[in-house]
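Translate sequence into structure tokens.
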Amino acid sequence: MSITDPDRPDRLHGLDALRGGALLLGVVLHASMSYMPTPIWLFPDDQTSPAAAGLFFAIHLFRMTSFFLIAGLFAHLMLGRRGTGAFIRDRLSRIAGPLAGLWWVVFPAVIAVIVWKAAIDNGGTIPTGGPPPPPLTLETFPLLHLWFLWVLLILYAALLLVRAPFSILDRNGAVGRLADRLTGGLIGPWTPALMAAPLALALWLTPDWIPFFGIPTPDKGFVPNPAALTAFGSAFGLGVLLDRRRDLLGRIERLWPVFTIVALGAGAAALVLSGGPVPPLTPMTDPQLKASTAAIYALAVFASTLAVAALSLRFLSGYSAVRRYLADASYWIYIVHLPLVMVGQVLLLDAPLPWWGKLAAIFGGVMAAALVSYELLVRHTFIGRWLNGRRVPWRRAARPVPVPAE
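Result follows.
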């Protein structure tokens, strides 16, 4: 899903690696849900640990805001390089297309795993006579883990709507220069607190907010909840502004120790305020406690997001063929991973392994199956062009050997 040109020297390898890593962490996140002490998943395992809940909490804290930060930067980059028309065509093909086309593959696969598990519990036969499934409406449509594609489309549309009048009215660039100066003032040790303020308010205003789950996942219905739009929209917007001020990426990189320390402290405090690794999964009702928890959680979200961005810029900015391959494959892996994770969870329910052994086995099995299918079915085919914008030939043509003149 990378939209940078691989042959340009200014390719942001660190952020490209972070984008891929954020998607791949979704495999770990969903696999860990079976092993949390408080059952929250379809297939709870008898091997549980508070460490699994802590792992879930930590990943959920920064994963998607990091992804949307990078998506905003790459979106603005692509708009500048290709223009509005090409940008719209590309996003419709590579974001709207997979959402509309592959949901019809992933959703039946998820349902099939659920039915399979029900048959196992029913002695090998599919139970009948259950309640009918709820009707699909705009409010109840199950986007599953593909919700991020829908939110991306919303944010792309918002970017185009905001950008269009400024392109027409700001002929002399005064507004753009003002925005760039404001962006320069935004980036510093204070950035996590400034970015957290709108999200803290949105979380505090969220009815029935369960702090352990943080930003409510907009995986159902076509109208994302306000907290999710605030979190992911502000991260996306910051990415757009940073593409205008690429020099500020160096400032973010240099602040990696500050962001990391704040992220660790605020993240630990948010976990404690949320009830710890064995939390009561009930809405927080005390308004003062809810306000303080929302503020600390929002600070932890953006501190951890900036920390992983800074660390990626600091330590992963060099080219790596392995990281590049995984970044290219991560889009496909994330799309297909959920039913594969569920199959692994069901198969290992009675396995004589500790929770971490089961988690590692699921992650390894899903990655193996997804990478093999990516290499054989996606990378070198039209699907690769559809998802990644390019099809890698099976075998690169050999360079001609020059024949010396006689």
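Note: Residues 71 and 236 are 6 Å apart (CA to CA).
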